[in-house]
């Protein structure tokens, strides 16, 4: 059964009121009392989601428009404005219960979601704050959020199906009026690219029936009539960006500052009313040599991209990581890493001289990538501010230097007046950026939904490479960011044992922070039998405890905890590589044995060949414990 058929059943489409036009119940058809409850639910939810002063105008304008949309009396407006400003108390659940008792909504509360979605899209702009509100209201009405995705997908699918039915007639009509060049331009300026499947033209006479016939099944005849006008066509086109190509149509025409490479690569083929951009932090030999490799399980949206940036330098960084890890095998057999607290104010790491002697291998590519990631982040900000992606919410997810790209993107956007309503959620994993709250505070006005900081206390590699790159003592990828409820700190120490795990364990990490992944997906991209992969509840990996917050109030680098501090080897065995706790299982497995310097490179049973990082497919194999380490 197709998505539209399933949604039609859920919405219980009534007999057409007009021949050829299916009828859906809308918010206007509720009783006046329930329309009041509907508006009040939205007003109170807005005040809870966006209490910041800079968001008050949006909240007020939204409820004012909703009151008009629901055909409520103007006398109700002051009350709704008060709700939106935070004077509604804790009444959201009460109004939700009132709505659930309405005869129209009793069997299908999704109708409120559908109506709120229609209202939010009526001007051709899908504000990220509106989508966050729709998600909140949908949850309060006990409707799974997957149904919202289904609504959004069906809206676009209806346009695609209508286009396919009329394609022959439409093409013949166009060819009579346009030459080949204009025909090509027509396709490009449509709602989506040719491959995307949805095409809405700029010619009013042709596009009006195309839009109206398809949209009527989702937003009703009134909404379809509005979309069928010339203005409505332009409005819908704006949703998907210039020329309809969205981010795939963006090409960096010339070198921008220090940036040499900046391209969006599609991770999925679908189109959606909200998009996701994933940003990789480094490239490595073998499985992780491409930007898309870590994101194979990501299923946040039907329209997902990965940002390809500075591949040359990220590969150099990956090679440096391989080199330092392979060299570390010999070092740790003789000298364990130890922590030394210098004073009550500054906590620092004392690294062994043997490790510092090869630091130059990593420091230079790391420093280069630190600088370039900041420039790429600023450039990404201007791309999003220019609405290259269209008027749609964007979610950003990145690990390591990819998270740093996001950090500087948000920092740049926060300086612009029109930064609101673009970013829905952001997820920064193992971010090598400042962790003090004052640096994250401006992000609250840029990000409409969740700001997630995923960190690992035992990430010794991040500690090492970041030690001289900045004088900043507090690193977000190593500890929580102590701001307010808007920043969700997720301790990934039970999932991530070392920095390289952010790429290798991305599926598990995404689940831990509450991001949807493809069902039954393992690291090799194979479907697993039901129950063979443990499903970790979102955030189970870790909400930051109050003790964490107390420990980090001084703004210092995360000091050692009993679980972080490696113990000295009691009986070193030169035949086995010892790794400090904080190296993940796969990293430990990838270190070659500290035998003779002339020994041939390790070749695994999977045929990966000489590879200091080891074969990713060997990562799950059971390893013998390192002697002298817990």
UniProtKB/TrEMBL annotation:
Keywords: Membrane, Transmembrane, Transmembrane helix. It is found in: Membrane. The chain crosses the membrane at residues 186-212, 218-245. The keyword Membrane applies. GO terms for cellular component: membrane. Residues 1-26, 526-630 are annotated as: Disordered. It comes from the Eukaryota. It is a multi-pass membrane protein. Belongs to the TMCO4 family. This is Transmembrane and coiled-coil domain-containing protein 4 isoform X1. It comes from Sus scrofa.
């Amino acid at each position: 059964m197709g998505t539209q058929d399933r949604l039609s059943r859920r919405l219980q489409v009534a007999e057409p009121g007009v021949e050829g036009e299916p009828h859906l119940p809308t918010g206007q058809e509720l009783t006046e009392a329930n329309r009041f409850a509907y508006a009040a639910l939205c007003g109170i939810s807005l005040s809870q989601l966006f209490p910041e002063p800079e968001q008050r105008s949006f909240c007020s304008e939204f409820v004012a428009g909703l009151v008009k949309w629901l055909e409520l009396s103007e006398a109700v407006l002051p009350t709704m404005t008060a709700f939106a400003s935070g004077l509604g108390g804790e009444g959201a659940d009460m109004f939700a219960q009132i709505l659930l008792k309405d005869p129209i909504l009793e069997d299908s509360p999704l109708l409120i979601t559908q109506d709120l979605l229609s209202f939010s899209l009526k001007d051709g702009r899908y504000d990220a704050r509106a989508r966050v509100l729709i998600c909140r209201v949908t949850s309060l009405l006990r409707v799974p959020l997957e149904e919202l995705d289904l609504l959004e997908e069906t809206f676009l699918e209806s346009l695609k199906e209508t286009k396919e039915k009329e394609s022959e007639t439409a093409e013949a009509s166009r060819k009579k009026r346009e030459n080949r060049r204009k025909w090509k331009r027509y396709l490009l300026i449509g709602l989506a690219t040719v491959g995307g499947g949805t095409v809405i033209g700029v010619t009013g006479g042709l596009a009006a029936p195309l839009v109206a016939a398809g949209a009527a099944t989702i937003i009703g005849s009134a909404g379809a009539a509005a979309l069928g006008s010339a203005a409505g066509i332009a409005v819908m086109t704006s949703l998907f960006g210039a020329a309809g190509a969205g981010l795939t149509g963006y090409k960096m025409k010339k070198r921008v500052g220090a940036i040499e490479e900046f391209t969006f690569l599609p991770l999925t083929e679908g189109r959606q009313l909200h998009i996701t951009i994933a940003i990789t932090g480094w490239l490595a030999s073998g499985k992780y040599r491409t930007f898309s490799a870590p994101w194979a399980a990501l299923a946040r949206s039907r329209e997902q991209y990965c940002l390809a940036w500075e591949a040359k330098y990220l590969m150099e960084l990956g090679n440096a990581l391989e080199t330092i890890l392979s060299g570390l095998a010999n070092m740790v057999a003789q000298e364990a890493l130890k922590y030394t607290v210098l004073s009550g104010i500054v906590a620092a790491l004392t690294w062994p001289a043997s490790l510092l002697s090869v630091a130059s291998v990593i420091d230079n590519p790391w420093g280069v990538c630190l600088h370039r990631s900041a420039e790429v982040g600023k450039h990404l900000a201007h791309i999003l501010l220019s609405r290259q992606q269209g008027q749609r919410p964007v979610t950003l997810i990145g690990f390591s230097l990819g998270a740093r790209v996001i950090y500087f993107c948000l920092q740049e956007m926060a300086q612009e007046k029109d930064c609101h309503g673009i970013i829905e959620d952001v997820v920064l994993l193992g971010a090598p950026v400042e962790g003090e709250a004052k640096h994250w505070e401006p992000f609250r006005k840029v990000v409409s939904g969740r700001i997630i900081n995923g960190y690992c206390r035992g990430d010794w590699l991040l500690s090492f490479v970041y030690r001289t790159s900045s004088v900043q003592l507090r690193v977000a990828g190593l500890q929580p960011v102590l701001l307010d409820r808007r920043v969700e700190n997720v301790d990934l120490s039970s999932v991530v044992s070392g920095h390289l795990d952010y790429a290798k364990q991305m599926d598990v990490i995404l689940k831990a922070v509450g991001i949807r992944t493809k069902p039954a997906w393992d690291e090799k991209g194979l479907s697993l039998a039901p129950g063979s992969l443990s499903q970790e509840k979102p955030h189970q990996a870790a909400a930051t405890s109050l003790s964490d917050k107390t420990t980090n109030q001084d703004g210092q680098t995360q000091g050692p905890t009993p679980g972080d501090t490696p113990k000295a080897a009691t009986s070193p065995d030169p035949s086995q590589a010892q790794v400090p706790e904080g190296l993940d299982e796969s990293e430990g497995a990838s270190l070659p044995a500290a035998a003779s310097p002339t020994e041939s490179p390790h070749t695994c049973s999977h045929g990966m060949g000489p590879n200091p990082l080891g074969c990713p497919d060997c990562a799950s194999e059971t390893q013998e414990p390192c002697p002298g380490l817990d």
